[in-house]
Task: structure prediction
Amino acid sequence: MNSVILVWMRVLVVEDERRLAQTIARGLRREGMAVDVSGDGADAIEKTQLVRYDVVVLDRDLPEVHGDQVCGIVRAEKPETRIIMLTAAGDLEDVVSGLSLGADDYIAKPFRFEELVARIRALGRRAVPSLPPILHHRDIELDPARRNVTRGGEPLELARKEFAVLETLMAADGATVSAEQLLERVWDEHTDPFTNVVRMTIMTLRRKLGEPAVVETVIGVGYRMA
Result:
């Protein structure tokens, strides 16, 4: 069965150049990814211990806690997380050195943003379980790559977060997904964990999906496709 990346990935950008970090983060969010930003190695290590990231975009030349050290710790503690190293040095020796530390990919600055996105998505395919190219539930069809959803053959217009929630629930294949898990997968670290944003998104999603209802609330546990 062909695998496909979930469009909605959780990415950590570790870059001490604040302007560059924010530029990368904004661009990735426009691509539909949930993105957190860290400006130093120690903070990055702490974030990866608390959150399951699909991909870490890691500047190698970090001050204090070097990117090499961050890479080694993340690889040891979170082997399922994929790492792309960013560096100003792009000769063969540096590439080999970076990969030998456990990085999955290596890209030299300056780089084209489109290339970074393509590499993140390629690594994301290795960070998530194998899924069919098109997700189905009853008469709902969801195409993650094209970000299309239909029900009964009719296209549905979903906002990004609504699409992300539906994709996550459909990928769970009937298993219950908690509100906390949805927050982690779909939103970033700036979202208040006590917010009702998940409940409100579920309400809007149900309205757009129409009848018969397919998103079920499991009281005290979370949500699932019924």
Notes: The first helix runs from residue 18 to 30. Helices lie at 18-30, 41-50, 67-77, 92-100, 113-127, 160-171, 179-186, 197-209.
